[in-house]
Amino acid sequence: MKKQDGKSVLILGSLGMLAREMLKIFPDAIGWDREEINIANQAQITSKLHKMQPKIVINCAAYNAVDDCESEAGFALAKKINGEAVGYLADVCAELGATLVHYSTNYVFNGKEKSGYAEDAAPNPISRYGESKLLGERKILQKQNLKYYLIRTSKLFGQKGKSELAKENFFDTMLKLAEQKKELKVVDDELSNFTYAPDLAQATKALLKQNLPAGIYHIANENPATWHQAAEVLFDITGQKVKLIPVSADEFPRPAKRPKYGILLNTKLPKLRNYEEALEEYLSE
């Protein structure tokens, strides 16, 4: 990738966790959030992007309220943001000759494969959130003459985003709960990769810099873990005395089904470090 000028990189969803890390490593990039653009508005996307003429569009915007997606209203919104809007971006990027970077999720898989999912595995979501993300993937894959990087990731953690919709990551939630209780029930039958937002941002930049072939890439930290296993690692690092009780997901009934085995296999890129090492770094900061 050649050196980018100030307006060559556009980062969407700029107040979110991942986008904020992106803006650190692309300091000259333009960042837009909901105040600057409504990505569900096709006319606005077309007009604003044609005016800016970006070389690279990194779409970190998403609707990720997984359980809310199970309602009719939530699913309609998810399809707009995670699906249709991605199609609008793909159309404009193809017209401009710009590279589109878009993030998807392990929730596009049904979670029955214990060994995990490589980039070419067939998606088969079991939740409406997963369906909405798959819709976005298909919008990209069916677009002709588009240079794209479709990156699947999972269980993102890092500094909380500044958006009013930003959620606490799992580890911060556990630390807060540990201040109130000395005994915590944690799900121990959903296995997948945790992903440190700064590591994902750096890997994305490397993908662009090396100008690798367009396609689907899986980027997540190594060493898959259940929520319970990760909580054990967390409290080992912090030294807090918390009794962790492993339970099945059935103990916490939720509207949306989760993949039981949502492991993302990275077969195309250098492996990221283990999530434990990334978590130590996160906690030290």
Which helices and strands occur, and which strands form pairs?
Layout: E1 9-12, H1 17-25, E2 30-32, H2 42-52, E3 56-59, H3 72-96, E4 99-105, H4 128-141, E5 147-153, E6 156-157, H5 170-180, E7 183-187, E8 195-196, H6 197-209, E9 215-218, H7 227-238, E10 243-247, H8 275-284
Parallel strand pairs: 1-2, 1-3, 3-4, 4-5, 5-9, 6-8, 7-10
Helix pairs in contact: 1-6, 2-3, 3-4, 5-7, 7-8
Overall form: globular
Strand order of the largest sheet: 2-1-3-4-5-9
Q: What is the typical, i.e. mean, pLDDT? A: 95
Q: What is the total domain count?
A: 2
Structural class: alpha/beta
Number of helices: 8
**Level of helix content?**
25-40%
| Uncertain residue segments | 1-6
Number of strands: 10
Note the main sheet: 6 strands, parallel
Q: Quaternary arrangement of the chains shown?
A: single chain
Percent strand: 15-25%
CATH level 4 superfamily of the largest domain: NAD(P)-binding Rossmann-like Domain
User: What is the fold-level CATH name, i.e. the topology of the largest domain?
Assistant: Rossmann fold
Q: N-to-C terminal Cα separation, in Å?
A: 31 Å
The name of the CATH architecture of the largest domain is 3-Layer(aba) Sandwich
Task: Evaluate the radius of gyration.
Answer: 19 Å
The CATH first-level class of the largest domain comes to: Alpha Beta
Order of helix and strand elements from N to C terminus: EHEHEHEHEEHEEHEHEH
